[in-house]
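hey team, just a heads up i'm posting the complex here instead of the shared drive bc the drive is being weird again. everything in one block, sequence lines first with there labels, then the predicted structure for the whole assembly after. its two chains so it's a bit long, scroll down
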Amino acid sequence: DQQVKQNSPSLSVQEGRISILNCDYTNSMFDYFLWYKKYPAEGPTFLISISSIKDKNEDGRFTVFLNKSAKHLSLHIVPSQPGDSAVYFCAANAGGTSYGKLTFGQGTILTVHP
Amino acid sequence: GAGVSQSPSNKVTEKGKDVELRCDPISGHTALYWYRQSLGQGLEFLIYFQGNSAPDKSGLPSDRFSAERTGGSVSTLTIQRTQQEDSAVYLCASSLGGRTSGEQYFGPGTRLTVT
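-- predicted structure starts here --
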């Protein structure tokens, strides 16, 4: 049962344009969401997070939007840079007895062309 | 300061052998996690240690998998009688703990190949 889904395996964007990565979830108990970026042969690195009490969180070029009614979140990168090329994972946490356990999506490979 | 380190970086083993994977978390981090990533898949939660509390083992796929954390720091993930389906990248992460510190800091992983 895939509770967190990233339906686009890959995304290709021109440098300077907007990259939009999408994530859907099914577990209504999730109330904290995170995005991680992963380069080859490295562990994932934290990018940005959002609590379910918010619908938007911004950090520099990165903005995460949360639509609780649709159980959907997205990561916007503006402007996109070649160094942003990586695999992006969304992750979710339910708290309670699941405290500390992150459920990850399958990842989206972002390629930003110069 | 130093990040999360894992050893070995690569491990090739024969089916049926036992393997031990090591994780050194960031100093001062009270929470430690193990995940694995199989080819083309997302990260799968395995086990979570928080301070002196009993670990959350709910993600361990079978009783061949076990983990311990000694002295609240270094952790070892042991896989007994390895199978080919155990081949994956095993990732360790640590965090300060606390709910809003969902930001887990990951090591580079150990790539396990079972032949």
